[in-house]
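Worked example

This section walks through a single chain of length 122. The input is the sequence exactly as stored; nothing has been trimmed or padded.
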Amino acid sequence: MKICITSQGSSLDSDVDPRFGRCQYFIIADTESGDFQALDNSSINSSGGAGIQSGQFISEKEVKAVLTGNVGPNAYQTLKAAGILVITGVTGKISEVIEKYKKGEFKSTDGPSVGSHFGMGK
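Given that input, the structure is written out below as tokens.
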């Protein structure tokens, strides 16, 4: 199964990025094969709509779940509409998060964890 984890770096040793729409990287990991790829987030500097743009980008990657620190209302709605589970409150190293996910240690969230424009630095 493919999952997406927001990341501050491009390796499995990187920390989870607490932002979804404006994270540094998306790590797409296959929980069965162990393969992963790091994708730059082109929406990081968007003046608006970063959550929606990031949500649409990730929905095209056929992931089953997104693991992140926080997700805003627009990103949450975009991901849910695509049938993707959203898991917030995630911290730690990417490699550790993948193992915890495989062990079933996370629960999906029922709504956004932050308001609009979280992570814009304003």
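What to look for: The first strand starts at residue 2 and ends at 7.
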